[in-house]
Fold this sequence. Notes:
By secondary structure, this protein is of the alpha/beta class. The chain has 18 helices and 14 strands. The mean pLDDT is 93.
Amino acid sequence: MPIKVPWMKGVYPALVTPFKKNGDVDEDSFRELIRHTLPNVDGLVPCGTTGEFNYLTVEEQKRLVEIAVEEAGGKPVIAGAGASGTRQAIQLVRNAKEAGATACLIVTPFFLHPSDKGVYQHYYDIAQAVDIPILLYNIPQVMDAYLPRRVVQDLADIPNIVGIKDSSGDLTYTMEVLEFAGDRIDVFVGHDEVVLPALAGGVSGMILASAQVYPEVWQAVIKAVQAGDLVEARRLQRSVQKLSRIFCRYGGGVAVKQALKMMGVDAGRPRRPLKSVGGALLHEDRAEIRLELERLGKIESKSTDFSFPQAALAERFGDLELSASAIKEAKLRLGTGKVGKSPEWAQLDLVAGPKDSPLGDAYAYQLTYPLHRREALTTILEPNLTVRPATLILPAVEQMNLRQANMIYGPTQSAVAKAIVDALEAGVVPQTAMDDEVMVVLASVDPRALDRHALYHNVRAAMTEAIEQAFGGGSDG
């Protein structure tokens, strides 16, 4: 029966492979990446999925393992040595052992899928051919097949098969492997979004793409779980959940390289056909990554010119070509509300009045000639159901990317609509206004806002406050 390996625990980064502009491996950048990561991890994992192993030559894989061993300072190096064919995998494992690897991580055969017996034979032959500790690797997202649990259970009896990395994110599978093989091999979680529940279930550690971005967070999660402090462990997991989700969505490498670049670590480019710009990673996701890194203190907050309108309320509607005097003369209703904490805070400035007033003309003008990057939108409660009085939402800040626009054309729009409906039901807005009046809302939303749920509630509360002022006589501008 296999004896568990003492070093098979803790936090291991699934290292990216930096490539130069011409597509060559950038060895210097790879060394710098390891030096950046090493102080907060328990070992290294080069040439895995995040390392774009399927785009590497046999020679490149061996060289990357050599560099990792040279830079590891005695910490374990688990070398990715996966191939769809058994003979090819054996050669990669032999190369990794010659390069000084501590163990090898071998992925389930892919593309042409063998039977369960064939999968067993694949790992058995590799284990017999090379005397080095081996970790199985289950990642059905890209292999289009699970490593069958019964096969894992049988392979766990082979002396040099010492562990498995489960990147499925399927906790049912993870728990089943722990149940049937966890007494003989170590189980590593490989899906960043489920680290905490996997640790609570009994895994020994983790091999993660994000462990080269925020390894200290994962170390803290382990300590919290070991101390029985699940409240702190949950807080830590949730603090990196959005970034972890982005990394998992893009398979690790492309998004992680962008994050590292933002942090000042030259992680190079992906190797073609992968692209970091204009293809694999959407612009709004890059914006999300930057904002999350700022929130975690990984990079300095990018300066922003955002501020709430400070002028007297009647003077805030210049974009509608409504002057304070015109508002007063037309006896338009005004209200404002500001609710929340940065960055999900929001300020809504409301102007309401008859359709045949200057406001009605301004309303029609905004629909006909929208402002660039500040296009007004009709307030709807649900598709094809506009609220009444007819209401436009005009963003106060230019929408520079789709992520920012989604905050306006999403939770803000929905919250404004719900506040109007609530005000009608409560009698704050008179029934006569439904057909006779229009409203325009100047919505000031921080471009750094991330939490859609919090923003929704803040906008709804701010809009409620603005309506009460406008229709309850609480503001005269």
